[in-house]
Amino acid sequence: MSKPDSVDLSAFSVPGSGRGILDVFSYGYLLRLLVRKGILTRYHGSVLGWAWSYVKPTAQFFIYYVVMGVFLDLSRGIEAFPIYLFSGIVVVNLFNEAFGNATKSIVNNKALVKKIYLPRELFPIADVFIAFVHFLPQLSILIVVCLIFGWVPTFVQLAGALLAIFIVLLIATGLGLLFGSINVSYRDSQNLVELILMFATWTSPVLYSFTMVRDKLPTWAFDLYMLNPLTSAVELFHSAFWFPTTSEAAERPEHLWFFAGISVVVALVVLLIGQFVFRKLEGRFAQDL
């Protein structure tokens, strides 16, 4: 009996295999659908709708300003304290929303994960994009206020702001992939993420000046503090929005661009680690969900 002719399978791919984040770019249409769905449903059924994107950060700013600026009198040592405060808040808010939502993205989309194959990285990356869209109204408020105070930034300062956004989105994506994959099997990891988000506000110079940290810590400890990607991103935003509205007496961290470059490297390493762990655990997603 003759053997059957072999079938050419070169045009087919192994089900469930892929290239991770790189495959997301092949699903651009689906990514846009996920982002659009997240944006449209964010304030669905609410009276104010998208106005909440302006109301919530404004309310947050006033609370911090009254407590930190008035009651604790920190505004006395920081010129143009309202701009300093709000330019830091918008950066931390972007990180908190992107990282927090990406962590829950796989669990929130379990119906799709269990039924069809697609790059599961689509879900945390879509949530990071959604967080960026919600960040834009806060950024617009900051720009308007800065213009009122005579804001005239340089090209380098604006480039620094763009780099800060890139750092935040990169580190949030990496951490979102890491904790989003772990959260499928171990839901208490979400509690750890909430602790990280709580510390994010206080471990970066948002509510206080970096000089307070520099004056209290030895040089090596302050350098470690500046190596925090979120710290570098906040200071880049301060340099872009706060510094141009102050006098020459205002201080900026030395070697800020050096620390920003290190922060990009750290964020890339976190992204690679997050992708590695995600790829290792995604085979269990459908089962654990």
UniProtKB/TrEMBL annotation:
It is a multi-pass membrane protein. The chain crosses the membrane at residues 12-35, 47-71, 83-102, 122-152, 158-180, 192-210, 256-278. Pfam families: ABC2_membrane (PF01061). InterPro entries: ABC2_TM, ABC2_TM_bact-type. Coiled coil: none annotated. The keyword Membrane applies. Residues 48-281 form the ABC transmembrane type-2 domain. The keyword Iron does not apply. Keywords: Cell inner membrane, Cell membrane, Membrane, Transmembrane, Transmembrane helix, Transport. It is found in: Cell inner membrane; Cell membrane. PROSITE patterns: ABC_TM2. Belongs to the ABC-2 integral membrane protein family. This is Transport permease protein. It comes from Agromyces lapidis.
